[in-house]
TrEMBL record:
Predominant localisation class: Golgi
MF terms in GO: glycosyltransferase activity
Region (Disordered): 136-157, 188-211, 495-518
Domain of life: Eukaryota
Any Pfam family matching the protein: Exostosin_GT47
Record protein name field: EGF-like domain-containing protein
Length: 543
């Protein structure tokens, strides 16, 4: 027999071999007598039932689904275990209403954003990205200190090198607008929501206007987007090109030709020129850049996750497990149906704290669901290029593991191991230092969940698929040192590190600290690379 009771946050399900099982009431524990072999069943939504066999002293399994903000699922997913709204990249807040990089959109009505700096962008966009990806550093640092500031970034970034444009306030405008109205007024000046621009309407400002030709010109920072400006705007003195994002007179002014010339992104590729999106069909749906080469006229270069002549097609591998058919893939983010959440819409259950011990039989692994602003499988320093094939084994692991419910568990209280999908390769590449990114991710894990602090992270594991593996990680680091590392090459000796640093400067950071070992036999794991012909074709077509 099955007895079921639902209230606003808890569901009890109990099957018993007894003829007359006691009826459960709200908040009540299981009956005092539970026959050995009785089953406590846990289920939510459309998932199949999993069975936990209990002994005669077991209590009922308790499921607690926390609520999210009412508007959360308009743009995101309700993570019912944490009561947190899972948001697509570039958004945060209880209902994903806060834009982290509004200046990185290609138009007012665009939704996808990225922080790539290989193509010329709005300087304000790159400043917004810097504040997010380089916590503790300053984008206004001088060029002499840019190296030290860049070392505090999650991705390789140099604020004095990137090419970008500033929009200047038209001469003679001094209109005052409220903070709430400013984005609307600025949008009207830059153009309608379809991305077109109205050159006749002046920009608004809350400050007196400076001479737009002087180094102290007032830059527009509200309602600015990252589409390449039209030449007419530049001729009217409304746009200025710079090398660097420092908002002062120390950076170099460059020409439009210097700013929009982009060298080939891969060996054998063609150099290109960045163009306004108006020169490409359908503005590439605001999902990429408009470019031309010496041999091909204006065409779309799509951001990672999209393909097609106008970036209208979603790449099949951009969302893990294609969202299991339970959601829509949007730029690498699964927007799940109501009741599901997670990287591939596979989550649907949430367990109350301390209701079970670790599983007595079989290995159980729990995977954290990290916010997209902490970990997203996009190359922030490129934005539209796939990963090199030798380093994509972690993608295959994620896809296979999230589908393996023999090992995976939604109940963290029964888990033996905890997987932290930090996606470090998307931030540091094959030879960069992942430490800043990993520390930020693990600090969130330790603060948001109780499991890290039980063991100091010894039962947590990370993938480090870069060439240097764990060589940059200090074994004494309180957040990263104890965690299990999964790497490709299993470097162990200092001598090996020294040989590798001659061709991989990015590993010098760890080697310089005197770390004597990268791989710990008997604890860390070495895995073989994985080759995916589909990924190879996708990477080649977007390079």
């Amino acid at each position: 027999m099955i007895q079921t009771l639902d209230d606003s946050s808890v569901t009890y399900l109990w099957i018993s071999k007894q003829q007359q099982p006691q009826r459960l009431v709200s908040g009540a524990a299981a009956p005092a007598k539970v026959v050995a072999g009785d089953a406590l069943l846990k289920t939510t939504g459309y998932r199949e039932l999993d069975t936990d066999w209990v002994n005669s002293t077991a209590a009922a399994v308790k499921f607690t689904l926390k609520k999210c903000a009412p508007e959360c699922e308009v743009r995101g997913n309700c993570h019912a275990e944490e009561g947190r709204c899972e948001c697509p990249y570039g958004y945060t807040g209880p209902a994903c209403e806060v834009e982290l990089f509004p200046a990185c959109k290609m138009a007012a009505n665009a939704t996808e954003v990225h922080c790539g700096d290989r193509m010329p962008r709005s300087c304000e966009c790159l400043r917004q990205c810097w504040r997010q990806l380089c916590p503790g550093s300053s984008s206004s640092s001088s060029s002499s200190s840019s190296s030290s500031s860049s070392s505090m970034c999650e991705t390789p970034r140099d604020p004095s090198f990137v090419r970008c444009f500033e929009r200047l306030q038209p001469r003679g405008t001094s209109l005052r607008v409220t903070a709430a109205a400013a984005p609307v007024a600025a949008t009207a000046a830059h153009g309608a929501t379809d991305g077109s621009r109205n050159m006749g309407k002046p920009l608004t400002s809350t400050d007196p206007l400076a001479d737009h030709k002087s180094p102290a010109a007032k830059f527009v920072k509200t309602g600015v987007f990252s589409d390449i400006p039209e030449e007419a705007e530049e001729q009217q003195g409304l746009v200025r090109w710079y090398r660097g994002i420092k908002d002062d007179s120390r950076r170099d002014v460059i020409t439009r030709q210097q700013a929009t010339f982009v060298r080939a992104l891969a060996p054998g590729g063609a150099n290109m020129t960045a163009l306004p999106l108006s020169q490409c069909p359908n503005r590439c749906l605001n999902r990429g850049h408009c470019i031309k080469t010496y041999t091909v006229g204006p065409h779309c270069l799509c951001w990672q996750g999209y393909t097609g002549k106008i970036c209208e097609q979603v790449h099949r591998a951009s969302c893990v497990n294609q969202c299991l058919g339970r959601g829509i893939c949007k730029g690498g983010f699964c927007h799940c149906r109501k009741g599901f959440w997670g990287k591939d819409c596979s989550r649907s259950k949430a367990y109350a704290a301390h209701n079970t011990r670790r599983a007595a039989t079989g290995l159980k692994v729990y995977a954290y669901e990290l916010p997209t602003h902490l970990a997203l499988d996009m190359e922030h320093f490129v934005g539209f290029q796939g990963h090199p094939p030798p380093h994509i084994a972690y993608k295959q692991f994620i896809s296979a593991f999230l589908s393996d419910w023999t090992v995976r568990t939604e109940n963290p209280w029964e888990a033996h191991l905890f997987y932290v999908p930090a996606l470090s390769y998307a931030y540091s590449g094959s030879s960069g230092d992942p430490t800043v990114h990993l520390r930020r991710v693990m600090a969130w894990v330790a603060e948001a969940h109780p499991f890290f602090n039980r063991t100091g992270g010894r039962d947590h594991f990370l993938w480090l698929p870069g060439d240097g593996g764990a060589c940059q990680i200090d074994p004494a680091d309180p957040l990263l040192g104890a965690a299990i590392k999964v790497t490709h090459f299993g470097l162990q000796q200092q001598q090996q590190q020294q040989q590798l640093t001659s061709s991989q400067p990015g590993i010098q950071h760890g080697q310089g600290k005197g770390f004597s070992s990268c791989h710990r036999p008997g604890r860390d794991v070495v895995v073989a690379p994985y080759f995916d012909r589909h990924e190879v074709r996708y990477t080649a077509s977007n390079s």
